[in-house]
Please model this.
Amino acid sequence: MRSTIGLFTLASLLLAGCGGPDASGPAVTGEDRAAAAEQHAQLLAEFGGAYQGDESVYLTRLGGKIAAAAGLEGQCTFTLVNTDVVNAFAVPGCYIYVTRGLMAIVGSEGELASVLAHEVGHIVGQHSKRQQKRSLWRGLGVLAVQVLTGSERLTRIAGNAATFFTLRYSRAQEYQADDLGLGFLRSAGYDPYAASDMLGALSRQEQFLAATKGRDEAKSIPEWARTHPLTGSRVERARQAAAATGAQPDALPEYEDRYLQALDGLLYGDDPQQGFVLGRRFAHPVMRIGFEAPAGFTLTNSPQAILIEGPDGLRGEFGGGRVPEGGLQAYAEALLRQLLGDAPVRVGDGRAARVNGVDALFVPAAVSTENGEIPLSIAVYQASGGNAYHFAMVSNSAGGSADALDPLFRSFHLLSAEEARRLRPRRIRVAEVGPGDTIASLAGRMADTNQRALFLFLNDRAPDQPVRPGEKVKIVSFAER
Ligand SMILES: [Zn+2]
Model:
């Protein structure tokens, strides 16, 4: 979360490219490119911004190679996204996004190339054109909220941005993207078995996250697995397709060393500039604030806000901004206008409170829709330097939300200097295994509560597979400041 309140028009992006022919005509049209270019900055802002660094140069170069192998030389744009969510996705116009979370779990250049080739496969197969309209607005009553209020921002809150960009492809489309991707991977000169290795790594991630779920409930299902359904049969299918190319496993290069060299120093986990989501807790070492949601809530970090989902259809955001003249009441009113636009809203009397030593204002509101009123609860907190922070929570059900929201609203607090200092960024460091090293000694160097599990998972290693001196491994360590 960064400290400004933004406005979003993801809806226009999501609907761009609809209504065209299915898999006919060129895979990348000038019209699609222009639409994707126009939305690029906004989409990036929504997902964490572009990651700056050598790793992004590396990704762009590799992407160019894969696009060329797919006959789309110079027609695709590859971007490394600054989030630890594991995901990759393609937007019509061949704008392809890969997260640093995905780069962290990849073990070779060939594996990363296979992900890019798969996404280019979705472009060549023109899958999004058929998918977007049908799936994106599915469920949640999200559509109803937008139709009834005409408010895109409220729609986003009701839906949650992560859900918004969840392009769900059919199994047939996934298989086609796998098949097309494998061809591009092979043409670009990589070991075609890298694709099944990569799919295997992703399903191990699912297991790893399931096993360490208590640590981080919000991320228990990797985004990539949600958007690209992973099954054992898909891994096996990719392996058989690689065998069918006639190539022997490892006959063609995967470039492990070159990849690890490029990866060395990549930020791992949350970015301190966006704050840390730790299970149901959120803490921002730069803004020096935090809160903790009650059991049953999940948090998702995005650059503009923390998206919050609770029981009984409770949804909302935590964000911040400048306090206007008129204080917290004026802030709450400005926030409501931003959230709702011109939608009719009934605002109740604000109730002043002290929350953990901070001045706060609780404002109940109700949005009128054709289906009755949607309760909207706002809590605003006065911070230093003319800034304020807020929760804005909508609920689909009429009753019960106040009881669930009170502990959330009362958990807001300022961080001490010591608490802020402990929230240090982590980076991936590539280390060479020394003569006396064991899995235990190397895992002991991991800056994580699940040292051994994370070591085995990031290095794609079975517990009984010994390390060899001279081998390169990924270690997660605290960054020097
Ligand atoms: Zn896919």
Summary: The two ends are 21 Å apart (CA to CA). The longest strand covers residues 358-369.
